[in-house]
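Board notes (copied after class):
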Amino acid sequence: MSTKTLALSNDKMIAGVCGGIAEYFGWSKGGVRLVYVLLSVLSAAFPGFFVYIILWLVMPKKHSL
C-alpha cells in the first residue's frame, strides 16, 4: 500500500516546491509553476516569495529509490 506524502520534487527548477505540490495532487508541474508565479507577481508585496521559502524549509525531501 502506497501512501502519498507532500515532499520536494526531484524534478526541480529552484527547490522543487511547485513540482512536489504538482506530484502530490497529480497536476501538471508547468501549470502549477505558472499559476504560482502569476499569483505571486500579481499579489501585493510578493507574499508568494516568502511562502515559497517557508515551504522549501518545511517540506521534506523526497526519498529516491
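Comment from the instructor: The chain has a mean pLDDT of 88. Residues 23 and 29 are 7 Å apart (CA to CA).
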